[in-house]
C-alpha cells in the first residue's frame, strides 16, 4: 500500500484528523492524529529505534536472519513482538519491523494521551486505531487492479494492522512475484511478517493454492488479498472490498 497524504484523507476516511510526516534515518512515517504531533512522534520514534539498534549491536543475527529466532524474554517489548511474529509466520524477525514500529508509535501516542485516534503508515504497513470504519486502498504497482480496490476496515476490528508485501514494488525483500500480498491482523507486526511469508510463496496464479493451504495454520490472519497482474486471491472474514479509483 502506497499513500500520499491526500490518499490518507480520501481513502482512510479520516478527514477530521490531521496528517503529518515524521522521518528519522530509514523510518519514514505518515501519520493521522487529532493534532500535529510531529515532535512527540519523533521523540517516540527515536526511543524505539534506539532499542532496535542497541539490540542489533548485541545480537547481529536479529538483523540478518531469514528464519525465526528463539524468543528472548529479556529483550525490549518491540523486539519480543517481532520475535513472536517471525516464529508464527516462519520468517526472520526483521520481516516484522515496519509493522512493529508503526504499532508501537501508534499505541504510545494513544496511551500517553496525545490523541484518541491514530493511523500510522510505515513503508506500506499500517496501524489503524479509529472510531469509524476506514477504507484502505491497495497499491499493486503495474497491475491493472492497482488503486482500483479498497479494503473496508470496520471499526469493531480496530486497532489492527494492514500490511503489504510486494515482489514488484519497493525495495523490501520478497522472494515472490506478487504485485501485492496484503494481510489484515490484530497485531501489526504479525500482519507484516505474514505478508512477507505468504508473499514469498507466490510466483504464478497456481500458487494461490499454496496460500489457501498456508492460511489453515495462520488463524491470526483475518484477511488476505493477493494481486498478481490481473489475478486476484482473497480469503478471510475481514475482507470486504469497495471500489475506488486512486
Automatic annotation (TrEMBL):
The keyword Lipoprotein is annotated on this UniProt entry = yes
Question: Is Lipoprotein one of the keywords?
Answer: yes
The cross-references to SUPFAM superfamilies, in alphabetical order and at most eight, read: ApbE-like
From what superkingdom does this record's organism come?
Bacteria
Originating species: Thermodesulfatator indicus (strain DSM 15286 / JCM 11887 / CIR29812)
Key words, A-Z: Lipoprotein
Question: Which named protein is this?
Answer: ApbE family lipoprotein
Amino acid at each position: 500500500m502506497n499513500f500520499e497524504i491526500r490518499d490518507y484523507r480520501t481513502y482512510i476516511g479520516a478527514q477530521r484528523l490531521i496528517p503529518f510526516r515524521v522521518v528519522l534515518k530509514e523510518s519514514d512515517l505518515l501519520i493521522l492524529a487529532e493534532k500535529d504531533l510531529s515532535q512527540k512522534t519523533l521523540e517516540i520514534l527515536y526511543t524505539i529505534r534506539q532499542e532496535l539498534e542497541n539490540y542489533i549491536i548485541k545480537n547481529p543475527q536479529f538483523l540478518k536472519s531469514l528464519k525465526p529466532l528463539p524468543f528472548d524474554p529479556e529483550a525490549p517489548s518491540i523486539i519480543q513482538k517481532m520475535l513472536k511474529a517471525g516464529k508464527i509466520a516462519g520468517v526472520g524477525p526483521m520481516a516484522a519491523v515496519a509493522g512493529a514500529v508503526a504499532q508501537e508509535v501508534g499505541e504510545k501516542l494513544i496511551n500517553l494521551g496525545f490523541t484518541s485516534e491514530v493511523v500510522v503508515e510505515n513503508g506500506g504497513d499500517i496501524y489503524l486505531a479509529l472510531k469509524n470504519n476506514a477504507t484502505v486502498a491497495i497499491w499493486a504497482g503495474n497491475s491493472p487492479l492497482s488503486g482500483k480496490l479498497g479494503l473496508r476496515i470496520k471499526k469493531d476490528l480496530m486497532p489492527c494492522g494492514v500490511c503489504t508485501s510486494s515482489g514488484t514494488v519497493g525495495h523490501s525483500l520478497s522472494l515472490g512475484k506478487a504485485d501485492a500480498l496484503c494481510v489484515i491482523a490484530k497485531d501489526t507486526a504479525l500482519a507484516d511478517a505474514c505478508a512477507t511469508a505468504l508473499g514469498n510463496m507466490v510466483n504464478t496464479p497456481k500458487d494461490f493454492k499454496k496460500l489457501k493451504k498456508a492460511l489453515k495454520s495462520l488463524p491470526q490472519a483475518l484477511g488476505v488479498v493477493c494481486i498478481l497482474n490481473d489475478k486476484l486471491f482473497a480469503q478471510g472474514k475481514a475482507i470486504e472490498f469497495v471500489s475506488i479509483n486512486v
